[in-house]
Fold:
Amino acid sequence: MNIILNKYILVNLVASFLILLTVYILQYFFNMAPCDMCIKERYPYYIIGILAVINIFIDSHQILKTLIIKLLFIATSFFGFLYSIYHVGIERKFWTGRTECSGQNTALDIEALSAQLMNTPIIRCDEATLLFNLISIAELNVVAMTLLLILNAFVLYKKI
Structure:
């Protein structure tokens, strides 16, 4: 049984790592700047990754390991799924939500702040960043979170 549990943990870790790697590649190599909500959609993957690493090092406490997996993995993927759905709804104008701009502000004086503001692209949460002019990154995140949620729900109901 422990082998199945370790493979499950590894799947969550690898999925989270690959998704985070992909969004950082899109951001830094393809200049697809994320909005504020896109950045917050990464948090569940960080949490899942941290929980997976913790679970890898908890070897002798099977009950604690199972509890972390069954409660926290599914809760994290569920809330990540809901937040992703909310973001897609805003992008597709199903409902109104956050429309403010996001950007990184590291200036220390007025001149540097002014120059930074003039050179920073405006990223809105209600405008979809399309990949291949077909599907938004937020929609891909819904797909990824749905798959993780299904996997985690399956393991929740399966007796390990």
Summary: The first helix runs from residue 2 to 28.
